[in-house]
Structures are given as C-alpha cells and as structure tokens.
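Problem 3 from the worked examples.
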Amino acid sequence: MRAVLDTTVWCSAFLSRNEKSAARRIWNAWRNGLFIAVVSGPIVDEVAHVLLEELGVPEADVDEFVALLCAVADVIPIKHQVMGCRDRNDDAFLETAVVGAANYVVTHDEDLLALPASVKDYLRGRGVEVWADARAGERDFCDVLRDAEASTEVS
C-alpha cells in the first residue's frame, strides 16, 4: 500500500505523543512498514517550512525529520502540473500520488476532501483515492490501516 500524506498529517504525526491519536497511529504504521509513504520535493519543503516557521520546531529536529522522511519514503520527482485543486498548493499532493502510483492521499484538508467530481474521477482512474486521516462516523485511513494490520496478523 502506498500513500501520500498531506502536510497537516505529517506535522501532526511528528508532534503528537499521544499513541492513540490518528496522526500517531499513521506515523507508527508508516515506521512499521505497513505502508510506503510517497513524497515529492514540494511536499518535503512544505512540511519543513510549516514545522520551522509556523510551529517553531527547532531546526535540528526538522533537519533530522526531513532526513528520515527522505531516507524512508519513496521520493518522486514531479513537474508541478495543475491538477484542479481549489488551493493550487494542493496540486503537488495529487500529482505526487499519480506519478508515485499511490493508492491514497491522506489529509485533514477540506480542499482536498472536497475535490470536484471530475478530479476525483481522474484520480480514481489512476487508482488513487483521497481519504481523511480520521473522521468520526465515516470510514477513514485509520480504518484502512486497521484492516491491513488485521490481514497481516491472519497471514
């Protein structure tokens, strides 16, 4: 399973110490090899920027995280194509998913969760689904991970 995580998911996962939080469960699943994270330069840059500039994480910690991310994730080059997002910055997540053959884009971002039908159809045609990381009352990426964990325990 391959997944593109949006900036809020990466930052929440990095900062969370609550093992029961969705962000931490996703982080642990990634670190335990349950899925392959797919990233591109613009995603890594945005995550580093938000951690440093908006959240005040020390530079050494951000550098260490970026090094881990680039070493463990599948880093994909993209061409900065327009993908149809309301927020043009979100196009990088969709393009990374398509080029990187990801199964999922995982997000908190309402702009990504409320994509136009034509964009959703385009993504589905390439095997990509956009899922919330955790969403009360709806199936979410944490449910997908739970199912994957259960199937590996049975095997």
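Problem 4, a separate protein:
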Amino acid sequence: MARVIVVIGSPTGQLRDNEIVAGGTPARVALAAAAAGREVQLLGRTGDDPAADGLLLGLTQGGVGHAALLRDPARPTPLEKISVPDDGTASIDDEPPAPAVSGDPSTRPAIEAADVDLGLRYLADFAVLVVAEPAGDDVIRVAAEASRWNAARLLLVVDAGSELPGALPGDAIVFEAPDDDRDGLFASFVGTFAAALDDGADPADAFRSSIAAEGWTEAAAE
C-alpha cells in the first residue's frame, strides 16, 4: 500500500437534505485532505446501522478509504441533526446552526488503543498521522510510537487547556479544538495542513498555505 495520511477518530452521520452524509471532525479532516489530492484512510469506529452506511458512502465518494473503520453492533452511530428555522427568519448572513448529536456520549462508538494499534499495523506505511479528536493517553501513546516507527509526522487535536502525554515525538504538532466548529473550518484547516505536510511542505509553509486555502489571514488565525 502506498504511503497515506491516516486520520484517527470516529465519524458521525449527518442528516442533510434527508440524506445521511459523513460528519464530525475526523471525517471532515479526512475529506479535506482527500480533496487536496492526498490518499487518506480513516481509522475509527461506527455503529452497524443505516447512519454508518450513509457516512461510509459519503467517505467513499469523497475519496477517503475506510479499510480500518470498525463496525460496532452494540453501539449506534451518532447522528447530527441540524435544525434550520422553517419560519423564514434565516438569512444568508446567519451563523450556521449548531448540530445536535444524538445519543448519550457514553454509548457512542469510541476508538480504543487496541483498535489504533491493529489498524496502524494493517495500514503500515503512512507519512502523516492525525489524531483528529481528543483522545485518551493510551491512544495517543500508541499513535506516538507508530509515528516514530514510521518516521511519520504526528498531528494531535486536543481540548483547549488539556495536558499532553510526555512521550510525544519532538516534532509533533498540536492543535486546540475550538468550542464550536459548526461550519467545519477548523477541521478543513487541519486536513489541508496534513495534506501540505504530506506533500513535503515544512510546517510554517503548510500553515500559511492552509489558512489561505480556508480564506483566513494569519492575524485572524492567531
């Protein structure tokens, strides 16, 4: 298998125009990297239900592989439902509505360290590894060790203010997730940044090209 970008994280389904598509930060990161012309695999978990079927179709259509995406029949795939005003009050200048994600977070499919270890052994040859959602220390440790073994660049998405494990590679890059990414701009930035690194750009150039691709300025991104 050719060298790829591996994105770690469990996607959600998103109900859009009565169709289920791929949603959630990990899926959006993966789709953005694929849209930039890179080969991408998403490593995570979904349920074994129609929402998973819909989001997997969306990933395939977006050029994202899911050879290491596990189905969990015991846990339903979370489904984002976006509420749009039907009284004519919405305008083009309004903020996108925040998605409401179905299901108790404790019952959603969640990636585990053993899943990550197995998936990365299967995918084997990757140049960039993205942990695209806040993850436990055990998951991060497995990802860090795999990135060292493969001489791959490690990117982490973490909650703001969270403490990081001390065993990260010296060149690991950490992004703090915003409280609200309803428009997907942050996820898209991370995906295009990963694609630029995979294309051989150094981190500073990758950052500049990625914020330009999303229509940001460096001042706005600080």
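Solution to problem 4. The chain has one domain: 4-83+97-221. The domain at 4-83+97-221 is CATH 3.40.1190.20 (UDP-N-acetylmuramoyl-L-alanine:D-glutamate ligase).
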